[in-house]
TrEMBL record:
Residues 47-66 bind DNA. Residues 1-20 are annotated as: Disordered. GO terms for molecular function: DNA-binding transcription factor activity; transcription cis-regulatory region binding. It comes from the Bacteria. This is TetR/AcrR family transcriptional regulator.
Length: 209
């Protein structure tokens, strides 16, 4: 038709096909909107329609990137675990192994009782079939933080005669139990007890590093 603008050949066929960078950005936006809604409204209010409105995308856009609400929530959970884990490996290079032990323990405890973890727990209440996978992922995060501690130069001396495989799980179970107690009684034990971590270090560490 006269006066009709023709699309350049280089742009033909690209409508509705975002670049890899654009697609990643769009997925991040959807996950961010989902997280904000989760914190503000709770897991039960997380319908795909609400998420689409919050992310300013269509429901079709969400369904082309996620297999549904459950898949979206699990992807969000994994993303948050990855972000939370990034802060667990700091201060492991403290010169004294006891200091490193207490530092890592405090960080794992903070992770286990964080608002993020509570929001994730709300997601799991909505996804009972995903609880095992989510718990396994959370447990693995804690074990990797402890593995970083075991790389400390003083670990071999400080933990001499201990079976390290058993130590990893025993330490994490102690921290999980402590976190559960803190969540059950938040008013009476709000701060993470320094004395408790020192007592735990004394239980496991038999020699000075």
């Amino acid at each position: 038709m006269v006066g009709e603008k023709r699309m350049p050949k280089s742009q033909r066929g690209r409508i509705g096909r975002p670049s890899a960078k654009e697609a990643a950005s769009l997925e991040d936006r959807i996950l961010a909107a989902t997280w904000d809604l989760l914190l503000a409204k709770g897991a039960r209010e997380l319908s795909v329609e609400r998420i689409a409105r919050a992310a300013a995308v269509s429901k079709k856009t969400i369904y082309t990137r996620f297999h549904g609400r459950s898949d979206l929530l699990m992807r969000l959970l994994r993303r948050k675990l990855e972000l939370e884990e990034s802060g667990l490996h700091e201060d492991v290079d403290a010169e004294d192994f006891r200091d490193a032990f207490c530092s890592v323990g405090r960080r794992i405890l903070a992770f286990l009782i964080s608002a993020e973890r509570q929001a994730i727990a709300a997601v799991l209440a909505e996804l009972p079939d995903a609880r095992h996978d989510a718990w396994t992922s959370t447990y693995a995060v804690g074990l990797r933080a402890i593995d970083a501690l075991l790389a400390h130069p003083g670990a071999a001396i400080a933990l001499a005669n201990l079976d390290l495989a058993t130590f990893r799980h025993a330490l994490l179970q102690c921290l999980i139990g402590r976190a559960e107690n803190m969540l059950r009684a938040p008013e009476s034990d709000q701060p993470i007890s320094e004395d408790w971590m020192k007592a735990l270090a004394k239980l496991f560490i038999r020699h000075d590093s």
